[in-house]
């Protein structure tokens, strides 16, 4: 059973890639082209029925940027369910608030790098 980049989510992934939030665009500029320790990141990569903001396959590392929808009871429940599923696949999740990207991008990049295993 295919769990990565299911065909059914292809159009949604494309739309999300073309319409990054401001925070996602800033972080993507810093992550793309293997700029962090030569690690390749993918944006809007799907695993199961979930679309991850940024994913590093070699590290099995998921980076999520959280805006206002994540800070509701429903948003928190969805995030918890999603994170539990990803962890069963051995995927590590790091969450940042959008404001972290705006106010401390270098600190965010340091935290990402600290979570590399190799």
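Q: What amino acid sequence fits the structure above?
A:
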């Amino acid at each position: 059973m295919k769990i990565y980049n299911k065909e059914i989510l292809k159009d949604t992934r494309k739309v999300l890639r073309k319409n990054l939030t401001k925070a996602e665009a800033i972080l993507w500029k810093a992550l793309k082209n293997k700029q962090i320790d030569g690690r390749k990141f993918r944006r809007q990569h799907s695993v199961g029925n979930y679309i991850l903001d940024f994913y590093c396959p070699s590290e099995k590392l998921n980076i999520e940027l959280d805006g206002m929808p994540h800070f509701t009871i429903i948003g928190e429940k969805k995030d918890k369910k999603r994170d539990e599923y990803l962890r069963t696949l051995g995927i590590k999740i790091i969450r940042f608030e959008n404001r972290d990207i705006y106010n401390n991008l270098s600190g965010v990049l340091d935290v990402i790098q600290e979570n590399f295993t190799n």
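Q: And what stands out in the fold?
A: The chain has five helices and four strands.
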